[in-house]
Give the backbone structure.
Amino acid sequence: MESAVLISIITIAVVSALIGSQASKTKKTEPFSADKAEWYYEQEMQNYLKTTGKSDKDLNDVDNNLIWEYSCNHCAMFLTWAIMKGYCGDIHLKDEPEAVEAVKKREMTGTAFFIKYCDCKLWREDFSDKILPFVDAYYSRYLDDYCGIVQKQLNKKPLGLSFSWEDYKVIEKALDKAYRHWKFWEKPVVKIGS
């Protein structure tokens, strides 16, 4: 009798998981449209002023460039992942193939590429058609995951963070995990930032 109950419970759990999996595959997600460093600039500037003790009137070009770099970091990490995995958009492969190769060889940081060739803006065209379904499904939660990874795995603060290849390796592993999960289940992983 107990084994029959156990089998029933397991069967219900398996069926529920399958139904949930199918429902999530048909669930509509908002397609990714853009992410822009300018949306984060003010917050990064306020953090910079607080940590340096400067006023906004004291900021020079070096300060402003550093604040822009901080504002770009999460976008640059995601775009770097796309470049390293062969998923960058045709626009970059056609217009700046040498720069794409420089990122792949780690001769150029993702932030330098993002600032110079994307004007601090991430658009659909920055990704290949092959990866866009993943970007559509996952990018809306990426910033939360990014912050969690930076805080819990890198033991750093998300604000005031410059691109580094060491940090990228940690972000890359998390993005690979999210992509594998999405590829298998066709939905983003529940939480990768912890």
Remarks:
- Residues 5-27 have pLDDT under 50 and may be disordered.
- The helical segments are 2-26, 38-52, 61-84, 90-95, 97-104, 110-118, 132-152, 165-185.
- Strands lie at 34-36, 121-123.
- The CA atoms of residues 84 and 104 lie 6 Å apart.
